[in-house]
Write a structure and sequence with these properties.
Length: 365
C-alpha cells in the first residue's frame, strides 16, 4: 500500500492537505468570488455599463461578468485543490462538476464542504488514473461518483455546522465586542500569516458583521505591521510585497525567531477591539474579504462593498446598506492602515531595544 500511494503521489500529510490544498483553495476563491464581487462593486458604484450589463441568463437569473465569476467559485476551488494535490488532467477536469455540486449542496458552508470533498474525490481519482485500458471512462466516472456521493453525504451537515460556528462567533462578538474583538482579530490575523488560508476560513464560516470587521482588523495588522516592521531590512519592495501582497513571506523568519511575530499579534489585539467597540466596523461584503486584509486592498474594499451593497450572507444576518459617514471612513482608515503601521512600528522599536528583534531578522530572501 505504501508503494502504491507513493507511485500515485498520494501523500497523506498535514502539509499536503492543511497547507497546500487550503492555500490553493484560497486562490480559487480569490479568482472567482472575490474578483467577481470587486467587479460588481466597481461597476455599480462607477456606473460602468459593461460591468453592470447582464451577459448571460441561466435558469431565469441574469448574470453580469462579476456574477458569472462568483457563480464559479465551487468549481474553481475544487480544481485549485486538485492542482495542489497534483491530480492528473482527467481528474482535474472532472472536479469542475464535483466542486459546483458540493458548493451548492453546502449552502453557506459550501467552501468548507468543497475543501473536504475535493480532497477525497481527487485522491480517489488519482488512485485509479491510468490503471485500466479504458482510463478515459474509469477515471472521470470514479472521480465524479465519489465526489458527488461524498458531497451528498457530508456537504449539507458541514454547511450547517460551519454556519452554526460562524453564527456563534458573530453572536459572541455582538455580545462581547471587546473580548471577542481581541480574540477574532488575533486568531484570524495569525491564520493569515500562517501557510493556511484565513480567507478560506472566513468564507467557510460566512464571517460578516462585527466579527468580520475584527477579522479585517487582525489581517491588516499582520500585513501592514510586518511591512512597516521590516522596512529597515526590506525597504519599499518589502513594503509593497507584504503590505498589499502577503505577510506569509515572513514565515521563514518567524520559524527562525518566533519573537518577531509578537509586534503584529499585539497590534491586532489592539486594533480588533477598536474596530468593534469604537468604530463598530462591520464587514458585510463577501465573507472571504474578512480574511484578506490589505491583500489587493480586498479587506477595505469588502468593508466598502458591505456599506453600499451587503452580500447575501450579511443580509441574512440582518445587515442593510448604509451611506458611510466621515466617521466610518476614518475608522476604516485607522483600523486598516494607520494604527497597524504606527503601533507595529512602536512595538518594533521596543522589541529591538530588548533584543527580541535583531538586525536582519525580518530580511526577506
Amino acid at each position: 500500500m505504501s508503494g502504491f500511494l507513493k507511485r500515485k503521489d498520494i501523500e497523506i500529510s498535514l502539509k499536503r492537505y492543511g497547507v497546500d490544498a487550503m492555500s490553493a483553495m484560497a486562490q480559487g476563491l480569490f479568482c472567482t468570488l472575490l474578483i467577481g464581487t470587486i467587479l460588481n462593486t466597481i461597476g455599480s458604484q462607477f456606473h460602468i455599463g459593461f460591468l453592470t450589463a447582464v451577459v448571460a441568463t441561466i435558469g431565469g437569473s441574469g448574470y453580469t461578468i462579476g456574477g458569472l465569476a462568483s457563480a464559479m467559485v465551487g468549481p474553481a476551488m475544487a480544481v485549485a485543490i486538485g492542482y495542489a494535490l497534483k491530480a492528473p488532467g482527467m481528474v482535474l477536469f472532472t472536479l469542475v462538476p464535483v466542486g459546483y455540486a458540493t458548493n451548492v449542496l453546502g449552502g453557506a458552508g459550501g467552501p468548507l464542504a468543497v475543501y473536504f470533498v475535493a480532497i477525497v474525490a481527487a485522491e480517489f481519482g488519482k488512485a485509479v488514473s491510468k490503471e485500466t485500458k479504458i482510463d478515459i471512462l474509469v477515471t472521470p466516472i470514479v472521480t465524479l461518483l465519489v465526489g458527488i456521493g461524498v458531497a451528498c453525504l457530508i456537504a449539507g451537515p458541514i454547511g450547517a455546522a460551519a454556519t452554526w460556528v460562524g453564527s456563534v462567533i458573530m453572536w459572541a462578538t455582538e455580545l462581547m465586542p471587546f473580548f471577542m474583538g481581541i480574540l477574532v482579530s488575533a486568531l484570524v490575523g495569525i491564520a493569515l500569516t500562517l501557510p493556511i488560508s484565513s480567507a478560506a476560513i472566513c468564507a467557510a464560516l460566512s464571517l460578516t458583521g462585527l466579527a468580520g470587521g475584527a477579522a479585517v482588523a487582525g489581517c491588516c495588522a499582520q500585513m501592514v505591521g510586518f511591512a512597516v516592521l521590516g522596512f529597515r531590512e526590506n525597504r519599499f519592495g518589502g513594503l509593497i510585497s507584504q503590505g498589499i501582497g502577503t505577510s506569509m513571506l515572513q514565515m521563514g523568519n518567524i520559524v527562525r525567531n518566533p519573537r518577531i511575530w509578537a509586534a503584529p499579534i499585539l497590534t491586532s489585539m489592539i486594533t480588533g477591539p477598536i474596530a468593534t467597540c469604537v468604530f463598530g466596523l462591520q464587514m458585510n461584503g463577501a465573507a472571504v474579504n474578512s480574511g484578506m486584509g490589505t491583500c489587493g486592498l480586498c479587506g477595505p474594499i469588502g468593508v466598502w462593498t458591505g456599506w453600499v451593497e451587503p452580500s447575501a450572507a450579511a443580509l441574512a444576518n440582518g445587515a442593510a446598506a448604509i451611506t458611510p459617514t466621515a466617521f466610518d471612513w476614518l475608522g476604516l482608515a485607522l483600523v486598516a492602515v494607520v494604527l497597524p503601521a504606527l503601533l507595529c512600528w512602536l512595538f518594533g522599536i521596543f522589541f529591538r531595544r530588548i533584543g527580541w528583534i535583531r538586525e536582519g531578522d525580518l530580511k526577506l530572501d
